[in-house]
Amino acid sequence: MTQASVKSRGPIAAHPVTSAVIAILVIAAIFFSLYVPLYARATPKVGDFPFFYFYLLIYMPVVGIVLWIVITLQKRLEPPPGPAAASDGAGEVTK
């Protein structure tokens, strides 16, 4: 695959696996917070804390890490800054 063909496609089409991983991570983060039967129970208990509070104490840092991974993957989709990305050929002068 040439560099020109990758440039002509969008970042999602050029990197479908990375885009799919991003989508799965974001959907999983939303699902595990909205699927209430998963954590709406009193048992098991950790000390005096019911499972709901223990779940939230674990879930929030995990979501932070997952979203950091998503941001890192999204940065990989962007073209690197530089002179090639800045000029699209419109400003070139030929003699």
Secondary-structure blueprint:
Blueprint: H1 3-8, H2 11-14, H3 16-34, H4 51-77, H5 83-86
Helix pairs in contact: 3-4
Globally, the shape reads elongated
Please outline the major beta sheet.
Answer: none
Distance between the termini: 31 Å
Number of helices: 5
Label the structural class.
Answer: mainly alpha
Average per-residue pLDDT, rounded, comes to 77
What's the quaternary structure here?
A: single chain
- Count the E strands: 0
Strand content: under 5%
Instruction: Tell me the radius of gyration.
Output: 22 Å
- In N-to-C order, the SSE pattern is HHHHH
Q: What are the low-pLDDT stretches, counting only 5+ consecutive residues below 50?
A: none
The portion of residues assigned to helices is: 55-70%
Structure description:
This protein is mainly α and 95 residues long. Helix content is 63%, strand content 0%. The model has no long low-confidence stretch (mean pLDDT 77).
